Known about the structure:
The structure holds 2 protein chains of 2 kinds. By secondary structure, chain A is of the alpha/beta class. Chain A folds into 2 domains: 2-224, P-loop containing nucleotide triphosphate hydrolases (Rossmann fold, 3-Layer(aba) Sandwich); 235-339, CobW-like, C-terminal domain (Hypothetical Protein Yjia, Chain: A,domain 2, 2-Layer Sandwich), CATH 3.30.1220.10. Chain A is built from 10 helices and 13 strands. Chain A has helices at residues 15-23, 69-83, 103-112, 134-140, 142-149, 164-177, 193-197, 207-224, 253-267, 323-338, and strands at 2-9, 31-35, 48-50, 92-96, 120-130, 153-157, 182-185, 240-247, 271-278, 287-292, 295-296, 300-301, 312-319. In chain A, a hairpin with a 2-residue loop joins strand 10 (287-292) and strand 11 (295-296). Chain B is of the alpha+beta class. Chain B has helices at residues 26-41, 70-80, 90-98; strands at residues 46-51, 54-59, 64-67. Chain B has a 3-stranded antiparallel sheet with strand order 1-2-3. Chain B is globular, with a radius of gyration of 14 Å.
Amino acid sequence: MLPVNLITGFLGSGKTTLLKGLLASPELGNSAVLVNEFGEVGLDHHLLERLDDATVLLQSGCLCCTIRGDLSDAIRDLYDRRERGIVPPFDRLVIETTGLADPAPIVATLMNDPIIRHHFRLSNIVTVVDAKNGHSTLREYEESRKQVAVADRIVISKTDIAAPEEVARLNAQVSLLNHTAIRLESSSGSLSATELMASDVYDPMGKSEEVRRWLAAEEHRLQEEEPAHDHDVNRHGMDIVASCLTLDEPLAWPAFAIWLTMLLNRHGQDILRLKGLLNIAGVATPVVIHGVQHTIHAPSHLDAWPDGLARTQIVLITRGLERANLQASLEAFNRAATRG
Amino acid sequence: MCGLCGVLAGADHWSDTAAVPQGSTPSQMHQLRTRIANRVLAHYGLKLTDAPGGLTLRSATGQSALVPHLGTLWTAADRIGRKPLDPLDTELLEALTRAEV
């Protein structure tokens, strides 16, 4: 399966500058790149193609599950030409979105397209936020908050032209929206390609480390969180918050599957990101689950519990949903499974 | 094709892919899944049956729908049920809790 990295970020955040720096590194030299537009920053790469913006809205589908027809066609075509030897046998695909793009339909296309999902896998979502303007952009634009909420890696760009207090304020704001993503600062677009694009939760070699990192991030968040802020979803003008559901007793897989599919059907547009380590009843090893809005990756197993403690932990980044209600619901569904 | 999850009918759904617990068979897991789903669906006047050809959802008024997997169950339930199904619905959670005692 070929890994796909998605680079997103608001208008002018520095996505193309970052991509230009990354493509110069030997690790990404054999990547194919799809961009929405050829911007002001010239990209010089042997396998660079442009996407035309056309979307296919599935009948009765919601916007986040829209299959992007342009993207689907472009990836299929690229793969076909790779197989026929018309283009070099690239080993990674990088997609740069437009500044206003919602990453969810792109993820849905990768995961749900019946052809693409057998040849490509989502590696991670990299979101670029500009240290100079990011604070106001995040306050004002829902698109920008969503791009941060779904990210696996967040690059704070332009730190060389921002005051240290602006960088610190943005870091705090980004952390509230998404505390489990790795955050990196960049002044010139030069960052480690390996750290940004490799080692992901879908990579059998790196997933254990990635899960260990989420759990450490969640532990840190709990230590930092002030109790008075616990349920103030509008603090700092933002309605997107991260929270964690936990369950000490084993989780019945059918109950969890029923709960999550039902939850995503009703509230999927407000569940921007989900990452979970599940203690499934009767299964010795932990199960990892991962999703962006309605799109859930196939669960996978880890060989052992990262911290030695067998318990369910589900990190959610949600919009307007109360943690207490989600926790009560999960517990009720699980209890319903234990009755005869 | 499912409008919400975009999965082709009959294709694998993530809910069908986790490991079967030790000592259980896939068939037992399907039966447990149907039993739990029916505890939820009963609150909305719906019933699910697990037949060899797949899952069938029926309403009290006789409407029915074939559902290939859990990803399509809830859209079908919304369509033929008497009100939108919500796992955060406090009345549903109270009903699930009451049924436990």
